[in-house]
Amino acid sequence: MAFDRFSFIAGSLCQSGCRFLRSGYKERTMPLDEAIDKMAARGLARGVELHYGGSEPEGHWEKQKRQLEELDLPLTYLNTWIYGERMWRYGALSAADPKVRRMAVERSKRTIDTARYMGALGVGIWLGQDGFDYAFQTDYRAQWNALVDSLKELCDYAEGMPIALEPKPREPRNRSLIDNVQTVLLLRYMTGRDNLGITLDTGHVLAGGQGLGTSISLALSENALYNLHTNDNYGAWDDDMIVGSVRLNEMLEAFYLLEKYEYPGYVSVDIFPYREDSIDAVAESILCMKDYVRVVDKLGVEGIDALIREGNVPKTLGVIRRAVFGKDECHELL
What does the domain layout of the chain look like in residue ranges? Predict the structure, then answer.
């Protein structure tokens, strides 16, 4: 059966501001429940990701759970919100101030509790404020050790529930502490917790100048790829653009690898449609990825494997081109 576990991050569909217009470009901020309803009505997504902010009004999660059950739209990952408030400006799980670090751990534990209540697959953690900006600013070893201790505590508290760290090379800090797949795998080793893994964001990998295929393959080889966020960019920044708007072959290769190594999780659209209709943008992203899946199925994993072993790059690219643009003779070249 073709891969069809597509999800979306709901919060960014409501309104997306930037540093030049913090209020966002849309005339109206769409309520979260409306965004979920509208996306569910398209019939393309099989799951949804949400954030736990810690300040939700009473009854919020009960209402949210009812909505998702009525829509038959499971919560895949519940993400922590330990980066978008002033208190985290010098870090969260690795903060030098033990009081701030304790607040981040406790907020994350409440996220885990809520994820259990909601029946989520796991908890996602992006530590956007954990890093540094300048030389001579940070005690690197103390920062790293604090992060390791915090993650040990959270993984133990989760009691087997997956905890997925999302690496990113930079932004909002100039240097992020968790910057790539290899760093997460090192943390997995140093914590000794096998429920610690990765949310791989395709845009973060590309903006960091890293190999998308190598990152996915490495994460899968360690059974550590828990979740996958997809978006597109030009390589200079985390633009969070519609999937398929810039890159083709790298994303096709990504879906070949997901099929080859039997990725068990979801692929979640993580875009910021600042000016575009957000529902249309997510729908187009999922439709594009369904076409990636169709191309991989058309060629077959074994057929692509054979091309790679042969090592004839012009031939391989010709086969891919013909498969993408609907030329039936692609099979004759395999």
Answer: 6-299, 300-334
